[in-house]
Amino acid sequence: MDPTFVPPKILITNPTVPQIALDLLGRGCELIHTKDDKRESILEKVAGVDAILWATKTNLDVEILDKAGPQMKTVGTMSAGVNNIDVPELKRRGIRLGNTPQILDDAVADVAILLALGAARRLHEGRLKIEKNEWTPGLSWLLGQDVTSSVVGIVGLGGIGQAIVKRMKGFSVRKFLYTGHREKPEGKELGCEFVSLETLVKDSDFVIVSCPLTSETKSMFNDSIFDKMKKTAVFVNVSRGEVVDQDALIRALKSGKIFAAGLDVMTPEPLPPDHELVKLPNVVLLPHLGSATESTRKGMAEITAHNILRGIVGEEMFAEVC
Which terminus of the chain is more solvent-facing, meaning fewer CB atoms within 10 Å of its CB: N or C? Predict the structure, then answer.
């Protein structure tokens, strides 16, 4: 080895990053670990690093970039979404950013189906009946909504949205609708109809949100949109909590404007245990577990490590945002 070689310094922003990433990066780099994934811990360790493995919901912003220094030119985020990263600022500074799309599509799609079925068949409400000793069955007790012969609307037909459609085809869905910036060839291949958001929410029995969080999609599901939905509609969000005006959703659920909701994402995260959403019987909640399978997280960690290693030496990343 060249005695003058100085290994690149990589900041690992989460102590629970899977070992596969640490093994890959540790072969030729100096790894610097934070004690947790909080902002204060990151600021304590980030100065002088060459790259950052971003595995935290903390915002990667000007303050952290300034603290890192001008030599830091590579970031690998262990996520598909980059809504907590100041991408324009990274571009301005010439910092490369890689993410992990596609690898998590199947896991997140599975959770979307889980939430759709759970909300439609009153899973949480049924459990509450058992806990409260209110198991009093009758011919019209706790009736839910059918997936068979339903209309399913997908908001955001990216990799996750397409994986959801492929799974739901097995439930004999009558029709798939989708909306987004433009009509996609994948939509035609899957037999989906491209419509406006207003048409989708008006005609769909299931509205499943899998679009990225952007300035355009933030709070797009508001009172006006929920007012257009069917009273029997089931709303599912596996995107980001901020895509939904959460107060408007709560109003829609409490007033019966929609039938039920299944949420893997919400605002804030973690959700306080006394939050209004927790109290509603017609909501199925998960603590943001979309990509939380062992193989998916290992795959995300591996891709993130490779993105960083490629970024450091100027090679094309597996998945590059900027």
Answer: N
- Mean pLDDT, residues 81-96 taken together: 96
**Is residue 241 scored above 90 in pLDDT?**
yes
CA distances from 215 to 118, 239, 243 (A): 30, 14, 9
Residues 6+ apart with CB under 8 A from 160: 104, 105, 108, 109, 112, 210, 238
Does residue 181 carry a catalytic annotation? no
Count CB neighbours of 105 within 10 A.
Answer: 22
Give the residue from 306, 281, 300 showing the smallest Cα distance to 126: 281
In whole angstroms, how far apart are CA 102 and each of 179, 185, 304?
20, 18, 13
- Are 219 and 245 in contact by the 8 Å Cβ rule? The answer is yes
Q: Does the pLDDT value for residue 247 go beyond 60?
A: yes
Among 124, 181, 288, 306, the active-site one is 288
CB atoms within 10 A of CB 166: 13
Using the predicted structure, report yes or no on whether residue 2 has a pLDDT greater than 70.
no
- Calpha distance 96→9 (Å, rounded): 16
Q: Is 60 exceeded by the pLDDT of residue 1?
A: no
d(Cα 130, Cα 108) in Å, to the nearest integer? 29
More confident residue, 5 or 245: 245
Nearest partner of 237 among 215, 267, 216, judged by Cα? 267
Do residues 42 and 34 make contact, with C-beta atoms less than 8 angstroms apart?
Answer: yes
